[in-house]
Amino acid sequence: MTEKRPIISTGGPQPAAGKRRSLSMPARYAINAVLVLVILILGELMIDGGAINRYQSTVLEQVGIYIILAVSLNIATGYLGQLPLGHAGFMSMGAYGCSIFIIRMSEVLGIGARDFVTGSPMTFLLVLGGLVVGGLCAAVAGIIIGIPALRLKGDYLAIITLAFAEIIRVVMLNIDSVLGFELTGGAAGLTGIPSYTSFLLVFGCVAVVCFLIHTMMKSRHGRAILAIRDNEIAAEATGVNTTYYKTLAFVASAFFAGVAGGLYAGCVGVLQPAVFGFMKSIEILVMVVLGGMGSMLGSALSATVLTILPEALRAFSEYRMIAYAVVLILVMIFRPQGLLGSYDFSLSRIIERVMNRDFPWSRKSVAPAGADDGKEASHDA
Question: Is 121 exposed, middle or buried (0-12, 13-18, 19+ CB in 10 A)?
Answer without folding.
Answer: exposed
